[in-house]
Amino acid sequence: MPVSPMNRREFVKKSAVTGAVVAAAGAAGTGTAEAADRKHRHHHKAPHTWSFSILGTTDLHSHVFDWDYYRDAPYTDKAGNSVGVARVATLIKQQREEKGEHRVLLVDAGDIIQGTSLAYYFARVDPITGTDGTPGPKHPMAVAMNHMRYDAAALGNHEFNYGIELLRKFESQCDFPLLGANACDAKTLRPAFQPYTIKRIRVPHGPDIKVGILGLTNPGIALWDKDNVSGKMVFPGLVEQAKKFVPRLRALGCDVVFLTDHSGLDGSSSYGDELPYVENASNLVAEQVPGIDAILVGHTHVEVSSYTVKNEETGEDVLLSEPYCYGKRLTVFDFDLEFHCGRWRVTNKKAQTLNPNAVDEDPEIKKLLEADHELVVKYVNTPVGTCTQDLSAAESCWKDVPVMDFIHEVQMAKVASGLSAADAALPLISVAAPFSRTADIPAGDVTIRDIAGLYIYDNTLYGKKLTGAQLKDYLEYAAKYYHQVPSGTTVDTSTLTNANKFWDYMYDTAAGVDYEIDIAQPEGSRIKHLTYQGAPVADDQVFVVAVNNYRANGGSGYPHIADADIAFSSMSEIRQLMIDYVTEKKTLDPADFAAVNWKLTQDGTPVF
């Protein structure tokens, strides 16, 4: 539900002054403390040096416990990682005990309320916004993070997946601010969320250390969640907004300026030239905006323990760190400061990541959220039908497997049901990506978690129109996913895909047309024998393409699709449509939908 114009104006006005209010309130308290300190200066010598730490998490994606809802078992991976804030909370307690409660701040870099079955449950099944006038529950992530005493969190792009109303409700449940200096009201262009907060590190018998924390989110929200934010919010670049707010924090007397960015640090963008702003811009912020001491990085789900960038204007080093996603790591930034010429200055800083896999889960978080967890476990284990045979996604990245045709079947059926008479006469096809190679729908009973494990994102559905020429371009773009393997060379599936740069979720296959991908050919010349119902696809032939909202709005930079005419749109999640399909039919039978319509070749010879 959109915020009314009056409420939005009031909120923006309130948000814009929040930082100043925080600073002023803190200054008033400091004045009292410093006055008391001055009385005792002749008894106590003020320290010349001090140290403190900022702890950081990112991309928690509603992982509270060390549990895999899709497998209905404790989380495991080859590296022996654990997930969940319950374990991270134990590390944070240890840091506070070791360094002192008042020498530790705790910050997150976004993507908090989406990503697990627990997140979906409290957004859609028993939403925190309430239903039919009844108040909703408190979000488990708000409960956990309040207990852990977070000082601030940046907005992630996935915060917007369930709409602004649910995000505002989550914000109201948090005891800490959600920061987004570049999440702006579409009309006023002023931050619609608090842009920054100022925290004070108390120094006995000396002036406080003022720490300014600025939050920046991802410009890609404008594309990826267009349906939720269009006309309501805009998302300028990180560099552009940091240039406005970092000087403001320095002018407010901040001794340390710390950024929490939901943006990676390699300067790349997954959406091509669809937006003028860079997706992964943390390194650019460090280079181009003077006055920053350190940046907590998020969004890209990688671990970068410590990384230094030299600012172009000042020559000063900016320290960056990105902890691994899902609570697999905790970043620790340590700062040493010296009081010199009437102010605190940073003399040394370092960052490292800690692994929580060897500590126990926080018993208090377990006590607070065990009941919520059990509700979700019961929900995801609800049977919705049966399957006639095991449907595995293990080979979905290089073979046309039946479990992917299940997704295509559901997408095409839903789009077909909502087309106009004119568009219903056009050929209908579907595109979808293999999100999880470990997904498996077993023979026998099929549960919600089996389907959720196959379709892990909360995407909704579009029907968009592409010409035959545009469709070929689209499939050529997808075929970049494969490394070139010359004819006569053995194909090794472990090295076949370019998945470290062109991730699995970026690779679309198509159903409804037949084609070959010749991996012996260079990029741009791989799609061969593209046909529809046995006839070659003509360049001017028009298709309705069933496609998820992320891709339809420009996600992953596919050509033509973002600007294509819309023939159909729905706010129903594709995953729920798949659950409904099995519930209605009672039996999932690949004989109803499976067809091999694409294959990999080398100079025309099938690879498999």
From TrEMBL:
Q: What is the lineage of its organism?
A: Bacteria, Bacillati, Actinomycetota, Actinomycetes, Kitasatosporales
Q: Name one GO cellular component term.
A: outer membrane-bounded periplasmic space
Name all Calcineurin-like phosphoesterase domain ranges. 53-302
Key words, A-Z: Hydrolase, Metal-binding, Multifunctional enzyme, Nucleotide-binding, Signal
What PROSITE patterns has UniProt attached to this entry?
Answer: 5_NUCLEOTIDASE_2 (PS00786), TAT (PS51318)
**Source organism of the structure:** Streptomyces pluripotens
Q: Please list the cofactors this protein needs.
A: a divalent metal cation
Q: Which CDD domains match?
A: MPP_CpdB_N
Gene Ontology BP annotations: nucleotide catabolic process
Q: What is this protein's name?
A: Bifunctional metallophosphatase/5'-nucleotidase
- Give the family from UniProt: Belongs to the 5'-nucleotidase family.
Q: Does the keyword DNA-binding apply?
A: no
The segment(s) forming the 5'-Nucleotidase C-terminal domain are: 384-562
Which PANTHER family is this protein grouped with?
2',3'-CYCLIC-NUCLEOTIDE 2'-PHOSPHODIESTERASE_3'-NUCLEOTIDASE, 5'-NUCLEOTIDASE-RELATED
What is the annotated localization of this protein?
A: Cell envelope
Q: Which reaction does it catalyse?
A: a ribonucleoside 3'-phosphate + H2O = a ribonucleoside + phosphate; a nucleoside 2',3'-cyclic phosphate + H2O = a nucleoside 3'-phosphate + H(+)
The reply on keyword Nucleotide-binding is yes
